Amino acid sequence: MAAFRVAKFALLAVAISGFTLPANAASDYPTATVAEYVYACMKSNGENRDMLQRCSCSIDVIASVVTYPHYEAAETFKQMGLVPGENGALFRESAPAKAANAELKRAQAEADVRCF
Fold it and tell me: Does residue 17 have a pLDDT over 60?
């Protein structure tokens, strides 16, 4: 009888684990990164409640498309690419920089369509 209970419990655990929902992609992004994105978005689009909702939606869409390490790399390439001259050329013109920036631009375009 005890073996039946153990088997029943194990079967129940397997069934429940198969029905768990995946973690929200936005929760993989640090809170400071999300807040920084929303703040910058609101600064450029307007500081009101509607923009707060739209900018929050935007980072959620980006987080669902781009993993945090890829987002972080693209943002680094973007910021370092602002350095003038040869020092910034590596961050603007290298293949990894172009690929990371293209991935982020695709995610931002998707966010614009869904949220704005």
Answer: no
